[in-house]
Design goal:
Elements (H helix, E strand, L loop, with lengths): L1 E6 L2 E3 L5 E9 L1 E12 L6 E7 L4 E3 L7 E6 L4 E6 L8 E11 L4 E5 L3 E5 L2
Parallel strand pairs: 2-11
Antiparallel strand pairs: 1-3, 3-8, 4-5, 4-9, 5-6, 7-8, 9-10, 9-11
């Protein structure tokens, strides 16, 4: 039983910034990988950024240089700092985590999503 809770979404003008947070809770032994995905209605969900337990990061080309993903391991929390936002960044952003849980193997979990709208 693991839950992911996202927060930090909202409305921002082009060129502005937002910081998303994702907190994992439940019977967690460890988290191997945490990621941010995004999706607009009618489009496929795409990977935005991810970070491993070793600290290795990966970004989509569209956000590289503008977004930064980081983790607070002790609190099982991942952040996505989004700078110089563009209208094409508008989407629902979802947190994903590969988690080792008590009395179980490694499982993938999704958060409920948080809306980010970039518009003038």
């Amino acid at each position: 039983q693991v839950q992911l809770l996202e927060s930090g979404g909202g409305f921002v003008q082009p060129g502005g910034s937002l910081r998303l947070s994702c907190a994992a809770s439940g019977s967690i032994l460890s988290i191997r990988v945490m990621s941010w995905y995004r999706q607009d209605p009618g489009k496929e969900r795409e990977l935005v950024a991810q970070i491993s337990s070793s600290g290795t990061t990966n970004y989509s080309d569209s956000v590289k240089g503008r977004f930064t993903i980081s983790r607070a391991g002790a609190k099982n929390t991942v952040y996505l700092q989004m700078n110089n936002l563009k209208s094409e960044d508008t989407a629902v952003y979802y947190c994903n985590a590969y988690v080792t849980v008590v009395s179980a193997g490694i499982r993938a979990y999704w958060g409920q999503g948080t809306q980010v709208t970039v518009s003038s």
